[in-house]
Amino acid sequence: MSSPEIDALAQALARLPGLGPRSARRAVLHLLKRRETALVPLIAALQSVAANLSTCEICGNVDTRNPCGVCTDPRRDVRQLCVVEEVADLWALDRSRLFPGRFHVLGGRLSALDGVTPEDLSIAALVARVRAGGIEEVVLAMNATIEGATTMHYIAEQLRGLGVRVMQLAHGMPVGGELDYLDEGTLAQALRARRLVD
Amino acid sequence: MSSPEIDALAQALARLPGLGPRSARRAVLHLLKRRETALVPLIAALQSVAANLSTCEICGNVDTRNPCGVCTDPRRDVRQLCVVEEVADLWALDRSRLFPGRFHVLGGRLSALDGVTPEDLSIAALVARVRAGGIEEVVLAMNATIEGATTMHYIAEQLRGLGVRVMQLAHGMPVGGELDYLDEGTLAQALRARRLVD
What we know:
With about 200 residues, chain A is an alpha/beta fold.
């Protein structure tokens, strides 16, 4: 790998999450051996995205359209809004197709440690969306972390009195989870939220 | 991920070795969020390689120069030649900087199962390089597999009588290896090649 161009490509690929220096070199080799079937199509795909990239002005999703494909989808139930921390969370929930409504991306979570305040997140825009009317239920789908919970409670406070149901995700044992391997916090949640056997 | 451009990029990335669908989506998100610092530089690195890509006419290495950087490096000992199966093997050995000579890439290994015959590999070119003179030692650095060994013995036969020392790599316990976890073949090799304690 003495060529500077190949080195530069390996370094650019190694910066992607999930690829270390070793797998980046394997990826480079894969691309070098398949110029027409892998290298050229990858360049085209990247260029197409780079040329059309934008952030949705309504929900904060990253898409090649603005407003994004989720916000313009006529089959979505506009009465339900799911609030998430990051675009990755929106994609994860959207892939599962379990949520029929639209989304709102905060762009992070409140964090005293990292100096993230409500002004750094898309909270004012969320309140404005709810105030504009038409939304009946807001699901606060934050991560199950301390910062996620702090963010959730702060937003719930902001939405109080706006006439929407503010919901949170259920906590408990993950499907397939084994009691013996669960952390104490999850166990406590699962016990606290216990319900009658169907 | 409803945009076809983003889907196409995720699929192109997922085809790279080491990236599955999930990590490809994370990589896409990483690129989308860092248009100027990650997406644009990656496109530039790929284009630069695609524009200059070539296979070295001497050794079969993939490089942006032809002859490649290894073959044109004046500090290399031209009397020593290391024969490897794939370009990845050349890179692995070259990174370790343990071999001071030049390389020869076969482009695969003999395989009755996959129908790979000597004519499919760069063996005639290897014999021609050795016949051309100047080479004193050939190290056959094939993989320690049945097919690697078959290939090694075939090439050793072709090089017989050409006045070069034909060597193979040592087999035995890997550094840091624990006896209890080694396979029987490695144990047998390590025992067979035993030597006096220094």
